[in-house]
Amino acid sequence: MRFIYVYDPLCGWCYGFTPVVMQFQQLHSGAMEFDILSGGMIVGDNRHPFSTMAAYIQREHTNVEEMTGVKFGNAFLEKLLPSEEMMDSEKPSIALTVFKAYQPENAISFAHDMQHALNYDGLSLNLDTTYRKLVRKYSLPEDEFIDRLHNEHLRYETNQEFQLVQNWGITGFPAAILDTGKQLYLCARGYTPLDRLQQTVDNIIEESNRL
């Protein structure tokens, strides 16, 4: 049984949902495998400055806070958001690919660290220095990590992950899939509270056992 979390590092609702997935992982770590895939929400020609989304995010972030309990920091809302810093999902997605080669069991936690760095601390996910700070928590070799962050093969691998998510028909984030070994089931689309996620997974397992 494998739980696959499909997210994007720049997605505000994913920032709210990742702590739910982390709780779910703690509850089922012995009984279920966990994986996280990057969806490639803002890449290539879709990239644009944060300032172009500022009005929308300023309105929407309060909904995310109220529904999920996460907080957006002033460093993000007042400094990064109005800036010309580019919104680009690719580099943080490559960082997740790199991280999974070291500590796959902590990949969801690392994804949340990236989200917190962006949405609370207002740090750019386009800068190598941000990742140097983040990987220290996991005692990873900083220089080696940064080298791999610029590795063309790992960039290709990450873009293949975007393609896989697209092939599954997932165009909105967050989402989650349960792989029973026989079939893939969509078990979350959009932010989903822990109790509802658990109920959906229980229902899928029950149905799968009957097949």
How would you describe this structure in keywords?
211 residues; alpha+beta; Glutaredoxin; 9 helices; Thioredoxin-like_sf; DsbA family protein
Explain the overall architecture.
The chain has 211 residues and is α+β, with helices and mostly antiparallel strands. The protein has one domain (2-210): Glutaredoxin (3-Layer(aba) Sandwich). The chain contains nine helices and six strands. 35% of the residues are buried. It comes from Chitinophaga fulva. This is DsbA family protein. InterPro entries: Thioredoxin-like_sf.
Helix content: 40-55%
Instruction: Enumerate how many helices there are, as a single number.
Output: 9
The whole-number mean of residue pLDDT values reads 96
Distance between the termini: 15 Å
Largest sheet: 4 strands, mixed
CATH homologous superfamily descriptor: Glutaredoxin
Q: What name does CATH use for the topology? A: Glutaredoxin
Number of domains: 1
Indicate the CATH class: Alpha Beta
Unreliable segments of 5+ consecutive residues? none
H/E series, N to C? EHEEHHEHHHHHEEH
- Give the overall shape, derived from the CA principal axes: globular
Using only CA atoms, what is the Rg? 17 Å
Number of strands: 6
How are strands sequenced across the largest beta sheet?
Answer: 2-1-5-6
CATH architecture tag: 3-Layer(aba) Sandwich
> Strand portion, in percent?
5-15%
Structural class: alpha+beta
